[in-house]
Amino acid sequence: MTDPTLIDGKAFAAKLRARIGDAVPDFVKAAGRKPGLAVVLVGEDPASQVYVRSKGKATVAAGMESIEHRPDADISQAELIALVEKLNSDEAIDGILVQLPLPDHIDDKAVIAAIEPAKDVDGFHVINTGKLAVGEDALVPCTPLGSLMLLKDRLGDLSGLDAVVVGRSNIVGKPMAQLLLQENCTVTLAHSRTKNLSEVVRRADIVVAAVGRAEMVKGDWVKPGAVVIDVGINRIASGVEGKTRLVGDVATAEVIGHAAAITPVPGGVGPMTIACLLRNTLVAAHRRAGLPDPEGF
Ligand code: NAP
């Protein structure tokens, strides 16, 4: 990646994964076992299968135990919750991730609520979202956590900066806003009902776009010198028949040149999500084993 404006999330994530891998042997020495991550994939959703495969590979590469459960799409909610409860009581498992989306007949919220909060490495359980909101040690959702790491790496102290997060989902927008608030940013959380969105975004020193709309944030929405985190992953027609390409929620080409920095899509935030999943698993393993949190994560 040659343009200095582009934030190389792939390289940052690779270094983070390597540091996690280096920290695992100390945990093994102290706890007498590897950290264990269980991933539950219900059904055959092709995109989810790709994610789960990458997560499994990265977990093993970091020296951790990877356990996969792949129940059929017709599993009942009660059976899925019973599986989660079995994983809750399995001492060898430190992290449980139930891959979303779940089939329509299963209530995501009920399944997430069944996960033991100490093993909730996705950080979606209300105990963890509540702890994050009140500033207690929580397991924090991976995508916003990774986005924050990239921001701090680029900007250092975020204190006093104006941050605008576009998108208020429970998995990205809301926890991102909480994390930025903890860093003493002045935070605006924008969404589909926000008036004059382009003007709101133009105020920001930090823009986080987590909307799911291809290239919605235009170049002239971004203040010169702002740092832009593009969380969006959108597949659009590439111009070549039958082919598609990935773009973010920001019109990157328009922003390069006057933003101080931007995460590209792909290769920006995406790789940080898996790296932070491993980070959360390592932290959860330490806490469950009664060990102090690993340093530097
Ligand atoms: P989501 O649950 O669909 O939430 C989208 C948010 O965007 C909502 O809060 C919605 O507002 C807001 N929004 C929609 N249209 C808008 C508009 N025209 N103007 C302003 N706000 C608008 O999506 P998500 O799960 O947060 O994901 C967002 C994007 O990030 C998606 O592209 C997803 O694929 C990507 N993503 C990437 C990663 C990664 O690892 N890089 C991880 C997770 C998600 P309302 O609340 O008012 O409806």
In brief:
This protein has two domains: 31-117, Leucine Dehydrogenase, chain A, domain 1 (Rossmann fold); 142-270, NAD(P)-binding Rossmann-like Domain (Rossmann fold, 3-Layer(aba) Sandwich), CATH 3.40.50.720. It is built from ten helices and ten strands.
List keywords for this structure.
single chain; 297 residues; five-stranded parallel β-sheet; alpha/beta; 10 strands; Rossmann fold; three-stranded parallel β-sheet; binds NADP nicotinamide-adenine-dinucleotide phosphate; 2 domains; 40% helix
Note down, in words, how this protein is organized.
The protein is an alpha/beta fold and 297 residues long. It has two domains: 31-117, Rossmann fold, CATH 3.40.50; 142-270, NAD(P)-binding Rossmann-like Domain (Rossmann fold, 3-Layer(aba) Sandwich). It contains ten helices and ten strands. The protein has helices at 9-31, 46-61, 77-88, 108-114, 126-134, 142-155, 173-182, 197-202, 252-255, 270-288, and strands spanning 36-40, 65-69, 95-98, 162-166, 186-190, 206-209, 227-230, 234-237, 244-247, 261-262. The strands form three sheets. The chain has a five-stranded parallel beta sheet with strand order 5-4-6-7-10. A three-stranded parallel beta sheet has the order 2-1-3, sandwiched between helices. It has a two-stranded antiparallel sheet with strand order 8-9. Helix 2 links the parallel strand 1 (36-40) and strand 2. The longest helix has 23 residues, at 9-31. The radius of gyration is 19 Å and the shape is globular. The model has no long low-confidence stretch (mean pLDDT 97). NADP nicotinamide-adenine-dinucleotide phosphate binds at residues 143, 166-169, 171-173, 190-194, 197, 210-213, 231-234, 269-270, 273.
